[in-house]
Automatic annotation (TrEMBL), chain A:
SUPFAM superfamilies: MoaD/ThiS. It comes from the Eukaryota. This is Uncharacterized protein. Pathway: Cofactor biosynthesis; molybdopterin biosynthesis. Pfam families: ThiS. The keyword Nucleotide-binding applies. One of its GO terms (biological process) is Mo-molybdopterin cofactor biosynthetic process. CDD domains: Ubl_MoaD. PANTHER family: MOLYBDOPTERIN SYNTHASE SULFUR CARRIER SUBUNIT. It comes from Vitrella brassicaformis (strain CCMP3155). Keywords: Molybdenum cofactor biosynthesis, Nucleotide-binding. GO terms for molecular function: nucleotide binding.
TrEMBL record, chain B:
SMART domains: RHOD. The chain crosses the membrane at residues 18-43. Keywords: ATP-binding, Membrane, Nucleotide-binding, Transferase, Transmembrane, Transmembrane helix. One of its GO terms (molecular function) is nucleotidyltransferase activity. One of its GO terms (cellular component) is cytoplasm. InterPro entries: Rhodanese-like_dom, Rhodanese-like_dom_sf, ThiF/MoeB/HesA, ThiF_NAD_FAD-bd, Ubiquitin-activating_enz. SUPFAM superfamilies: Activating enzymes of the ubiquitin-like proteins, Rhodanese/Cell cycle control phosphatase. Residues 413-436, 543-563 are annotated as: Disordered. This is Rhodanese domain-containing protein. It comes from the Eukaryota. Residues 461-586 form the Rhodanese domain.
Amino acid sequence: MRIRVLLFAGAKEAMRAGAVDVEVNASSADNTVSVAELMDSLRQTHPPLAKVLPNSLLAVNQEYAEDDVRIKEGDEVALIPPISGG
Amino acid sequence: MSSASPPPGGGKVNWELWILRAVGVGVALYIVPRWVHFLSFLVSNSRRPSREEQQLVLRSLSILEDHARSKEASITHQITLEELGGIDEQDTAAGVEPVSGAREMPMAPFWTSGSSALSSAEVELYGRQLILPQLGVAGQVRLKESSVLVVGAGGLGSPVCLYLAAAGIGRLGIMDGDAVAMTNLHRQVIHNAARCGTNKAISAKQTCQHLNKQIRIDAHDTPLTPSVAERVVPQYDVLVDCTDNPAARYLLNDAAVLFNKPVVCGSALRWEGQLWVYNYRSGPCYRCLHPQPPHRLDQSGPEGLFNALSPGGGACDMEGVIGTAPGTIGVMQAMEVLKVCGGLGDHSIGASNRMVMYDGLDAEGPFRSIRLRTKRPTCAVCGDHPSISSLQDSPDDYIDMCPADLLPPLPPSAHVKPSQLASHLHRHPPSEANLSAPPRVPPILQDDNTYQQQVGGGDGGLGAVSVVDVRPSAHYAVSHVRHSLNLPIDQILSQSKEELLARLRGPRGNNRGAPPSPVSYVVVCRRGNDSRLAVSKLRDLFQEEADDDQGGGGEGGEGREEKGCTFLNLQGGLEAVRRNVEPTEAMPLV
């Protein structure tokens, strides 16, 4: 299953792109992946993101998502690291 | 004078009369021309004064008048501000002058205001927002009775302080330990060029007090520390996070939770910003969203440290920021404060627990928002079993660490003093002409673009020097040491030994037959932290082999070629070199 992840702040800077597509193996039962699985795939397939992942939020359909939230095809996924500057 | 002939018919000559006549004529001849001259002078000066003369007189009069008026005003307003707690001794010492215009106008006998809690001056000042039905007189009185602490008087704090002061927050605290600098002014618009060197809290207070003399403003000219937070935070109702580093954000969060204060939190970097209200209406705190401060994240070696502490970019001075990004977020922070304080909390983004994200470069729509999580039961400070019950419990979280702080120290011989490099560069300014010739230089230094200064002894011990600048390429592009090599820190940390060797050698560095000779790479950055990190890695990669006369056994020729090269850290960075340059403006630095 291909998931498009929108990137913000440090994540966008690390990839020099506003979004990345990531291929993950969906569970056969309901064709979904968990947030934790998506994070793992991102870490492996997009190494520059590794440094921002531990402190970032993942939002699915504009809502904060815990590690066990299931993502299905077509969901809007956003990776949001904190910004510290001011 | 003619001799007088005797008059006909008279025998006796009146000599006295003739003498008198002669004297009279003489006197007249002497005096009349002078009188004519005097009279013509009078006539010529009786013309109307010229325009310039009129203006001069008027200007002098108005200066005198202003002077008299200001004398009177300063006496009146000193008293008013003392009563308000507006200006204190500290401000007077810092050159903050009293503001003008505090005159309370009694109302006409037939006229009354809708609330005794607002003075006629306040009614006039806040009239345009008072007539908003959602706020009204009651809301304005709530604002007047509120106290708000703004932590950080920088890019976010500038609009926050200005709008909160203007809107009539009754007591405004402004905290900042830094001084105004020229590089701040493109975004920190509450300050001005004349205040460079003044503490930011005091400068911000001065501007705000000029904007609104009706409110009390307290400047806390100190950085936020645990003890300062314990003393100051309890005095206020609402906190505004306008800080610029993770350590201050975690400290303010923990203080907010421990003293039960809501926080309107903003942040901005590059073209982006984030805004949310936390510890509000049983919502989450900062740690619920970001449980681990950066320095607690995975950090093995220089690279891990750099990634952990600069996750996608740290501060404005490294990453850059467009002034309107913190400006936009700051204005929205002020809006949230006004809602929280003015009785419109239901309309706050804190009530819906949402975070607003702003991206000034997003043409599709620069704003979006996400709904945040609820409280994290395992949160270290607001969870069910908190491990932090005082600001003394987690001191490391509140120290603004840079990666170099967490590394083992470099040996003293691995440092160059800024004055040493400054005097070296002054005496031997890098130019095309004195780029080194191949025979004296080891292969690693063969690079047309790299400055290699061939200098004998008696030069502060620097000898042949090659300057490696590890700042981001955008910073390097603005200004740098002539013929220095730009090798950004993230590349040094992420690239392999072979890649780095190629970069250090440069495009034509393949003259392997040349004999090695001692050469120093002086590694520089802005403040001397990233360069220390770079030197640490470069020494690990190259210098240990070079130091080891046995050549490290299994290592091939690559290592041997660097024999004799040393990597030196410029202490205090280019900023420190700049302090050795006269005038400092001759070395603009970003």
